[in-house]
From TrEMBL:
Catalytic activity: sarcosine + O2 + H2O = formaldehyde + glycine + H2O2; sarcosine + (6S)-5,6,7,8-tetrahydrofolate + O2 = (6R)-5,10-methylene-5,6,7,8-tetrahydrofolate + glycine + H2O2
Protein name in UniProt: Sarcosine oxidase subunit beta
Alphabetic keyword roster: Cytoplasm, FAD, Flavoprotein, FMN, Nucleotide-binding, Oxidoreductase
EC main group: oxidoreductase
Signal peptide feature range: none
InterPro entries: FAD-dep_OxRdtase, FAD/NAD-bd_sf, Rhodanese-like_dom, SoxB
Native species: Steroidobacter flavus
Keyword Membrane tagged: no
CC cofactor: FAD; FMN
Length: 414
């Protein structure tokens, strides 16, 4: 892999930047691979990377129907945190956050992790009490969390209007939470996986599965049949459709989740604010844009665009908190198709079809989970049993009723 370093930057600049090689190859698919990963989002690429890096399984292809990162991984609002309510979730997401903390160095790619804190607001006494329980639950799982008064919040976020229609009474913060650049996470994993021999094949849609003797033997794709003993599905909002082609029913509902950015302004907000009650969250990107998101659209859809009512409601909520932002012009708005489970917890692990593994159900919160998801899925595929951190996230939990209801901790949008 051509290393990115100050020395290399200077050397290449002096040579007119002619010697940089593409960050990954554009291979034609081989007739078969040891492992095929379907979906070139963050989870698929991270799985391929850790298969090669940690398990020596390098005969791997990632098949992406469009371009890598063109799904939710390149459309999200970049929030990373691990302050989940239940111990199983907190342990998993903290594993992911810890991997994020070392990722720029590991991938030799600046993922621009900025741990500026994720602050959840409470707008009523009832919500304040729930926030206290939530903060204490995360502390008991060994995850940092701190309860803040309204005065603490005003000090941290001077522009906030505490006396809005929904007054701010307090909240809690995970100071290790933050944002990292979503494209960089995708490209960093792709470049590192490619360097270890993984084939990343774009414009290659998987249309069905080949089976032999009750187990998978390959996939049919828009570029022909590709054989594989082990297949991982990481296709987010398309999970139920694709799983059906393997004869599986997965409890995924697909909805559009939208976000938007304003024109860039000088530094105005250096933490991430989340309000479950008014269904909005807001941060400022490194380019200066105010990044705004809210609830998922209220209906099922496979279209990568959202409707105006949610947009309008979200903007109204943010302007209650920050009246001065009403002067800003909106620059862009977009949406992704999120894969929502009944308990807002992901589905990870083995499936009833031998050799077929699934990683989905991240809904509105799987960006923070990319390193952890890739790391544990690779281990699961390599050993054909769930990694200890994901045993609670199996598809079979819906048969047993062993749900992990993280609805309240799923950011705001669910
Ligand atoms: P994706 O990145 O969607 O990748 C799946 C890939 O599979 C896609 O590229 C798709 O083209 C491909 N694919 C589908 N079908 C096929 C097929 N048949 N053959 C081949 N390829 C196929 N999470 C957070 O943690 N923090 C946030 O702040 C946050 N904000 C969000 C804001 C928005 C607006 C949205 C939409 C999502 C947000 N999320 C957030 C959620 C997060 O983006 C996703 O959970 C995460 O990116 C999922 O990653 P993935 O790799 O599973 O899916
Ligand atoms: O999961 O933290 C989250 C989140 C924030 C915004 C969207 N998802």
């Amino acid at each position: 892999m051509q290393r990115y370093s100050l020395l290399n930057l200077a050397r290449n600049a002096l040579r007119g930047n002619k010697d940089w090689r593409p960050a990954w190859r554009t291979p034609t698919p081989k007739p078969g691979y040891e492992v095929v990963v379907i979906g070139g989002g963050g989870h698929g690429l991270a799985t391929a990377y850790y298969l090669a890096r940690e398990h020596g399984i390098r005969n791997v292809a990632v098949l992406e129907k469009g371009w890598i990162g063109g799904g939710n991984s390149g459309r999200n609002t970049q929030v990373c945190r691990s302050n989940y309510f239940y111990p199983a979730s907190a342990a998993f997401y903290d594993h992911s956050l810890k991997l994020y903390e070392g990722l720029s160095r590991e991938l030799n790619f600046n993922i621009m992790l900025s741990q500026r804190g994720v602050l959840s607001l409470a707008h009523s006494e009832h919500e304040l009490e729930i926030n206290r329980r939530w903060a204490n639950a995360t502390l008991m799982s060994g995850v940092d969390s701190e309860i803040l008064t309204a005065a603490d919040i005003k000090k941290l976020v001077p522009r906030i209007n505490l006396e809005s229609r929904y007054p701010v009474l307090g909240g809690f913060i995970q100071r290790r939470g933050g944002i990292s650049r979503h494209d960089a996470v995708v490209w960093g994993y792709a470049r590192a996986a490619n360097a270890l021999g993984v084939d990343i094949i774009q414009n290659c849609e998987v249309t069905g599965f080949q089976t032999r003797g009750g187990r998978v033997s390959g996939v049919s794709t828009s570029q022909g049949i590709i054989a594989a003993d082990r297949i991982v599905m990481s296709v987010a909002g398309h999970s139920s459709v694709l799983a059906q082609r393997a004869g599986l029913r997965v409890p995924i509902t697909t909805m559009a989740l939208q976000a938007m950015v304003t024109e860039p302004i000088k530094p105005a907000l250096d933490t991430i604010l989340v309000s479950g009650a008014i269904h909005a969250y807001v941060s400022q990107s490194d380019r200066g844009e105010i990044v705004i998101g809210g609830a998922a659209d209220a209906y099922n859809s496979y279209a990568q665009r959202g409707g105006l009512p949610v947009l309008q409601g979200t903007i109204a909520a943010v302007l209650e908190l920050f009246p001065s932002f009403s002067r800003l012009r909106l620059m862009r708005q977009w949406a992704g198709m999120v894969d929502i489970t009944p308990d807002t917890t992901p589905i990870m692990g083995l499936t009833p079809v031998e050799g077929l593994y699934i990683n989905c159900g991240w809904g509105t919160g799987g960006f923070k989970a990319i390193p952890g998801g890739g790391h544990t899925m690779a281990d699961t595929v390599a050993h054909n049993r769930p990694h200890p951190l994901i045993t609670h996230f199996g598809l079979n939990r819906f048969e047993r009723g062993a749900l992990i209801d993280e609805g309240a901790a799923a950011g705001v949008a669910h």
